[in-house]
């Protein structure tokens, strides 16, 4: 009897897993599998043609001691992230606040703001190449109207990274929707109560809105940091890392090592370092979240 | 009953198809062409099928993703039998050496005599022929005659020098703020760019491919880069970030260096009567790099003899003539038949071809070229970009830096 019960119990426990089996298999074959494999080949000198040879930590040592492009590309990426992340979050929140106003044609604006996210990165890059064009670009034309001679956006090492940031700020849709969802969740009574107490709109924003959307802020912050560190498409298409390697992102460094120089082992080692950097940053943000993220259900000690 | 009959017919058809399949040999052939030029490759393959009954050539047009797809093919040990190739240093270990086929094939000797000497250098590493050239282009200077007329500047003449080019460029750019005498890309392909090094009497690497110091940063190299930098700064040359050919077609650029590629569209947009073509100017010598399209055989191919037949057919006058729409014919007989050796629009390419045998590109001298060239490109780009943006440029220091950064690959 007991045995039979155990069998039924086992069956019951297995069934849910069977249902999610396609996903689990996909995850194992297409994510975990390659992940482990790339860890293995990161310890090899693995050319695309010819025999792989085991080099131990050779790839990692070379990266940190000999390869200047490693530090250079990492520096560019960090610089990009430092400018990009706050701007991106700020603009997304700003747009969400605007969309949260009760005005006519709200759903129209929502659609319009989401549109850029629908366009593929490749098409977007092509458009931005034109927008940034030194002579014929829209931006420099608009600047010329107010008497400013626009910079050579994509051709000047001083401006190219800024141009990348501006172009990257375009695809706002998803973040805005997440912020908007969080804003809608805030009960109206809080605002009403605070208004009766005489709080002005700035106070309402800092004392009510901001604390209550911190969970969304946390999520968006982590996603934005990850996106910033993985930035590749725009640079690959718009500048190919140039001019003078001023937009040579870390992801491009990995890509070039793998698919231009065909050093799969070295590129895998690069990718793992990137993975650890992103992991560390995400963990730091998570750890710090107990200090600034507020969940309604939790009771602060 | 009817159904049974139908079934029998099906079985018969499939059976026959099965038989047919056993008799045909399939040869996989990969090319980087797409659209119009891919069509040309398909026609040549079709012609080969006609001449060799029972052979099917599977033409695989990889287009822009060529390098990645070929790499994946070799990595998975599933490379095409025959393929176009330019990146010999990377793939040399996986490519069949063709010397023995060439030597043992009597009929090939006449063809070798018809081939322009020097082109074969560009697909040979360590005396091993890895690819058979089927088309080529050398580099020339295109010029816009109407701009020359407007500025009252004499057309360039054969044997001209870089100083002549600069003088003309200065005079031509006086036509207007937007007009430039010469234009070049601020981010050139390092492979193509080496011809200027040769022209000034130096090269990227030493002849054995092991030394970079004293070559890439030699005084001659510095002088050459300084010339380009000065031309940008004085406004006689445009350091173009995007297509130089587009700028030329726009009518604001009087002179441009390039291979055969933009010829057709240049004729379309500025007219054949306004288009002049002349050999590259010289400093110490006039030198052009050769971009050859060569066919290679995979070492792992299971149909090597058939693959060799196919390569041989591609090098034959018939196929080379069909290919003449894509780049220039590598055979003397075909070039003469098409009048290319006397046509003023094509002759300079053949003149420049004669300079080809004198040099071996650094590309074929060092197996680490792809990494070294990244450093070289960075240096070249930095000189040009800083010049365009009006920054102070210390050419020698920039070239020195590339040399010291490449040292790790030259060990």
From TrEMBL, chain A:
Main location: membrane
Occurrences of domain ABC transmembrane type-1 (ranges): 74-285
Localization annotation: Cell membrane
Key words of the record: Cell membrane, Membrane, Transmembrane, Transmembrane helix, Transport
Residues in the signal sequence: none
Entry membrane topology: Multi-pass membrane protein
PROSITE patterns xref list: ABC_TM1
Transmembrane segments: 20-44, 74-99, 111-131, 161-183, 204-229, 271-295
SUPFAM superfamilies per UniProt: MetI-like
UniProt-listed InterPro entries: ABC_transporter_permease (IPR051393), MetI-like (IPR000515), MetI-like_sf (IPR035906)
Family membership: Belongs to the binding-protein-dependent transport system permease family.
Record protein name field: Sugar ABC transporter permease
Organism: Fusibacter bizertensis
Automatic annotation (TrEMBL), chain B:
Gene3D superfamilies in UniProt: Periplasmic binding protein-like II (3.40.190.10)
InterPro entries, sorted: Bact_solute-bd_prot1, SBP
Protein's UniProt name: Sugar ABC transporter substrate-binding protein
Organism: Fusibacter bizertensis
